[in-house]
Write a structure and sequence with these properties.
The structure is a homodimer of 208-residue chains. In chain A, 71% of the residues lie in helices and 0% in strands. With 208 residues, chain A is mainly α. The first copy, chain A, has one domain: Tetracycline Repressor, domain 2 (Orthogonal Bundle), CATH 1.10.357.10. The first copy, chain A, is elongated. The structure holds a DNA duplex (18 and 18 nucleotides).
Chain lengths: 208, 208
DNA sequence: GTCTATAGGTGGATAGAC
DNA sequence: GTCTATCCACCTATAGAC
């Protein structure tokens, strides 16, 4: 996963990367950015068409329906995000370091002037096709599973301190980071986001 | 402000309540719910028309444009929310109690199966008319101001413990609660929301 | 794989009768 | 204040030529 991944992340949907051609990839890139900035109901095939100078009919050749495009979008985003989590695990380090790396993924999105794809789709949730809803829910669930593991290991190793269920702590982290991204758009900067991250990590630190 | 306020909140926009007639009020009620559930770009005059059995043309008599309706919506929401904060102040109690009451306002929204109006509009932010953007930003700013006062008083009185700028703590609280609402839609319950609130309040408690 | 052309629907908004 | 009728722009999607 490249360093610009979550902002400019290439999203190949359900299909293995090798089977997607360059055009489909470019369509997904543009669509991803449009949804992350405007939301699912405020972007159209016409927008992509204008940007890539390809007719709407051609877009439908690659993604038959908007629901199909949207589903490919979330599916690929989830895959790439989970790949980033694997990369964090591969690099090693203690639980606090991994949490900091996790927060850095969100900061990357904010710096690209975007919202987390699944965060903005959670706002659009009631209007999404069923397949997309499933993908969004699964994204959050997968994040929660990964974070739960971090919290369990961290407490056992004595590097994290917290009360109660590690799974609930995972909810707390996901919620706080998504909210920090959301509100930062109106605050217009990274300052409030970084304050949330600091407070979150400080609250988990083992006190001397 | 009634107990069902933030969910079923009547929103009278820029105009004093006494100057809005019953029809305008019903329009705002329906529109508020539709936006809180679907977002700004996924509701239409046709939706309101069907629900109230009034033609779209009649709706335009009360609110000339969608932007005008939207602006009245946020403006009224902000006013009612700030009235709820005044009510919290009026009831008295220490800083932790006021923070708990603040969080309860959000829980009320969640229980009505809605998102905070300004939270969902933050997701739609890039697509909003300028007047609406200003209202949303002002909503967050006003919340921040109120919370900053709570943090300043709480630290002075020795009822709250935290490091750094009270204004940043206010950002943290707003962000976390908005995010908890957002993500709770996918988690499908109040459990994750309550975990965030508990963690937030515990982190501020004065330790014995 | 891309195009032109078009279908059928819905969006916000207006004119003018009652 | 509500209605019918209408406008035009935009939406998703398809047929069929190249």
């Amino acid at each position: 996963m490249s360093s610009a991944s979550l902002g400019s992340m290439v999203n190949r949907g359900d299909m293995p990367a090798a089977r997607r051609n360059a055009t489909a990839t470019r369509i997904l890139d543009v669509a991803l950015r449009l949804v992350q900035v405007r939301g699912y109901n405020a972007f159209s095939y016409a927008d992509i068409s204008a940007e890539l100078r390809i007719t709407k009919a051609s877009l439908h050749h690659h993604f038959r329906t908007k629901a199909e495009l949207g589903t490919a979008l979330v599916s690929g985003y989830r895959r790439d995000f989970l790949a980033a989590l694997d990369e964090i695990d591969r690099r090693g380090g203690d639980a606090p370091a991994k949490l900091a790396a996790y927060a850095a993924l969100y900061l990357q999105v904010l710096r690209a002037d975007r919202m987390c794809l699944c965060g903005i789709l959670a706002a659009d949730f009631e209007t999404l096709p069923k397949a997309m809803r499933r993908e969004v829910t699964e994204f959050f669930r997968a994040n929660e599973v990964w974070l739960t593991g971090i919290f369990e290991h961290g407490r056992l190793a004595g590097t994290l301190r917290f009360d109660g269920d590690p799974g609930l702590m995972a909810c707390v982290v996901v919620s706080s980071l998504e909210g920090a991204l959301l509100v930062a758009r109106s605050y217009g900067g990274v300052r409030s986001f970084e304050a949330v991250v600091k407070k979150l990590l400080d609250g988990l630190r083992v006190r001397s």
